[in-house]
Amino acid sequence: LPDSITEISRNAFSGCTNLTFVEFPQTLTSIKSCAFRNCTNLKGIVVPKNVTTIEEKALGYYYDKEDIKVEGFKFYGYSNTSAEIYAAENGFTFISLDIEYSVGDTNLDGIITISDVTAIQRHLVEFEPIPDELLKLADTNGDGEINIIDATHLQMYLAEYDGIVLGKQIE
């Protein structure tokens, strides 16, 4: 989406089944109803602080004789914003971007486990991307890149290999 966009119109992306993850530009302020309806493969969305309006069923729903929530749909956003309110009102997972997470906690559950390794692997195969704001958490060896070495580094950390420190390359 272009950085100049301020509003996403009603039904603008309705039925775009190839969408899996969307990060909105900071200029966005409004998402109209049904904007992403029937985007059945869309599993996550990053909503900037500036978004003040998210209308009914704008995100996370598809229609099959009735409106149904997309399973596993996640909102990445900021506390006390329209994203958090919409997620709560509609029963979606909300992941706050204003909390400081630890390097390695790529699934943002507050603990580092093998699930975080899986999150890195899913990101690498483009199955479930990690939002840009959180990529630093996946760089477990601190080399500035996200690749399979980070997943391996995290596995070694979990296996308690000597000398493994998260956020630092192996010496």
Task: Give the arrangement of secondary structure elements.
Elements: E1 7-8, E2 21-23, E3 30-31, E4 44-46, E5 53-54, E6 61-63, E7 67-69, E8 74-77, H1 82-90, E9 93-96, H2 114-124, H3 135-138, H4 148-158
Parallel strand pairs: 1-3, 2-4, 3-5, 4-8, 8-9
Antiparallel strand pairs: 6-7
Helix pairs in contact: 2-4
Quote the distance from N terminus to C terminus: 41 Å
Inertia-based shape: elongated
Strand content: 15-25%
**What is the overall pLDDT average?**
90
Please tally the helical runs, counting DSSP H or I stretches of 4 or more residues: 4
**Major β-sheet, in short?**
4 strands, parallel
Low-confidence stretches: none
C-alpha Rg (nearest Å): 17 Å
Query: What is the N-to-C succession of helices and strands?
Result: EEEEEEEEHEHHH
Secondary structure: helix percent: 10-25%
Coarse structural class: alpha/beta
The strands making up the biggest β-sheet line up spatially as 2-4-8-9
Please tally the β strands and state the result. 9
Describe this structure in words.
With 171 residues, the protein is α/β, with parallel strands linked by helices. It is 20% helix and 15% strand. It is built from four helices and nine strands, in the order ββββββββαβααα. The chain has helices at 82-90, 114-124, 135-138, 148-158; strands at residues 7-8, 21-23, 30-31, 44-46, 53-54, 61-63, 67-69, 74-77, 93-96. The chain has a four-stranded parallel β-sheet with strand order 2-4-8-9, with helices on one face. Strand 8 (74-77), helix 1 (82-90) and strand 9 form a beta-alpha-beta unit. Helix 2 runs antiparallel to helix 4 (148-158). The termini are far apart.
